[in-house]
Amino acid sequence: MSRFRDSLAIVGIGISPTTRTGGGGLSAHMMEAQALKLAIEDAGLQPSDIHASLYAGAQQGADSGARMAGLKPRWWLPFGRMANAHNSLLYAAGAIASGNCDHVAVSLGISWLTDAQNMAKAAAEGRSVVVDKKFSIARDGGGVVQQGWTATPGAAAVHAFLASRHMHEFGTTEEQLGSVALAHRAWANLNPEAKFYDRELTMEDYLASRWVVHPYRLFDNCVVSDVACAFIVTTAERAKDLRRPPVYVKGVGMGDAGRESWWDKSTFSRTDAAFARDRAFESAGIGIEDVDLAEIYDCFTGDVIMTVEDYGFCKKGEGGPFLESGATRPGGSIPMNTHGGLLSAFHCGDMGNMIEAVRQLRGDCGDRQVPGAEIALVDGHGAELILPYMCPITGCTILGNQEG
Amino acid sequence: MTIETRAGVQEEFGLGDWIHAPLEDLDPDQMLFWDGLKEHVFTLCHCTVCDAWYWPQTLCPNHGAIPEVGQMEWVPSSGRGTIFARVIVHQVTDPAFAGEVPYGLIVVELEEGPLFVCRMITKGDPYDAAIGDPVEVVYCDSDRAGHTLPLFAPVGEWTR
């Protein structure tokens, strides 16, 4: 048995009020402090019990969220790349095993809704705005910003490339992309925290929605949110004495072959889930057939189709028909993105997926609870450094509510 | 055949004044590429040891743990390729581009092998340019800014 399996547990989770539940309009670090406070209370701990505070994002270079929450950690550290919810678990494992800390907090606040509103205001006033410049400069040597690339909703253009290639190679259809949006919306309709809780989505609605960047329509894009999430990690042994039942970390795997994408052209229609899954499942000692639910990083619809293929929920190239079959919807054979995901709930990087998986494994999910869920696959991907070939890093975590 | 250029790319393809916006954050390793464009030469980084071509990579990973900078050279290439991936922009946030939607952004699979990402220009409907179609570089000079942008168009759209 792997030494890592079941050695750590997530013992506390917190999410700030969402846009739909009266949140928003606050700074990212204020929301992050709210989420941290809730997570620490959820665990039954005090702020002074948190010995290391990890910031799961790249937006902020200061510990303001942790400070506002009253934490006095021995150290604070930003995780500046993506798949941070997964990277942070690996880092926490070492920090705890080395004796440097008992409890580690992982948190992220995002104020992209407020930021977007400010940008729209600037554009309306005729000021030129460079959107998401980060998507251009690191790998293409610059210059693409000036060609209209980042005039678009930047990440959408980048990810739409991947979808266009997948459609070309495998015959994935617009309706199959739409079926991802519909599946996640059906889950959001069961989640009062979700942005689209009270708005259903039909295929007619989807096909009638405006083009943003072909092949992506409005509802192929994730929502933009003001929200924060946090979770607390400790050893499985200490977890037994805390307030809530432990959710065990059974395995974590990372994949990063996307950096080869400038010469390996196959990376255009796959994610690094194909690599991350092997280490995660080996550690967990289970197979894909043992997974009860999955929380897939759904920044755009096409990413979900590629990712389910790469994990092996279906064959490569068959992600479109798989989503179209309804397998991932409420009542389906393998529920996915049970909170509504980035597409229909809220966007807190890959933190939202981790929070939702813990809630499901605790049995706290009410109308959207997956009955008898014991094993969850949590996925996160992305990166800020490569254009146009996003998704060069994937993190995969297997969580379970039983030891062994 | 690499397309020869002349004044008027901006006018002929209806491009905005964004072509004059200063190029920012250029990678120092890429300056020979941008210098070549000013001479209307489309250079790629070439490995003298194994004959592999790269862009924007400037080191060859094919031999030895630490690739040698001196093995690499920027040399003229065909400036031609086929569309590998294509998106059509409908929604822009930056008003500088609002007059041009819908427009295409493409990844070109260059004849020499590397992928190159760029703005696609066309006098026709951008949707008519499909994945697999041949495209070639069009040099868009900005005398005002002192730079040349490498835009790509369907083959045959820009001839003398």
Word description of this protein:
Chain A is of the alpha/beta class. Chain A has a single domain, classed as Thiolase/Chalcone synthase (Peroxisomal Thiolase, Chain A, domain 1). Chain A is 34% helix and 18% strand. Chain A is globular. The model of chain A is unreliable at 131-151 (pLDDT under 50). Chain B contains 2 helices and 8 strands. Chain B has one domain (9-154). In chain B, the strands form 2 sheets. Chain B has a 5-stranded antiparallel beta sheet with strand order 6-5-4-7-8, with helices on one face. In chain B, strands 2-1-3 form a 3-stranded antiparallel beta sheet. In chain B, strand 5 and strand 6 form a beta hairpin. Chain B is 8% helix and 33% strand. The two termini of chain B are 12 Å apart. Chains A and B meet through helix 4, helix 6 and strand 5 of A and strand 4, strand 5 and strand 6 of B. Strand 5 (211-214) of chain A pairs antiparallel with strand 4 of chain B, so a sheet runs across the interface.
Give the SSE layout.
The complex is a heterodimer of chains A (404) and B (160).
Chain A: E1 8-15, H1 28-43, E2 50-55, H2 64-68, E3 75-78, H3 84-97, E4 103-111, H4 112-124, H5 134-137, H6 154-170, H7 174-188, H8 203-208, E5 211-214, E6 216-217, E7 226-235, H9 236-239, E8 247-255, H10 273-284, E9 293-295, H11 301-311, H12 319-324, H13 341-344, H14 351-362, E10 375-382, E11 393-400
Parallel strand pairs in A: 2-3, 2-4, 9-10
Antiparallel strand pairs in A: 1-7, 1-8, 4-7, 5-6, 8-11, 10-11
Chain B: H1 9-12, H2 31-38, E1 43-47, E2 53-54, E3 72-76, E4 80-89, E5 103-110, E6 115-120, E7 134-142, E8 147-154
Antiparallel strand pairs in B: 1-2, 1-3, 4-5, 4-7, 5-6, 7-8
The chain-level structural class of chain B is: mainly beta
Radius of gyration of chain A: 20 Å
Mean pLDDT of chain B, to the nearest integer, reads 86
If interface size is counted as residues with C-beta under 8 Å from the partner's C-beta, which chains form the largest one?
A-B, 45 and 49 residues
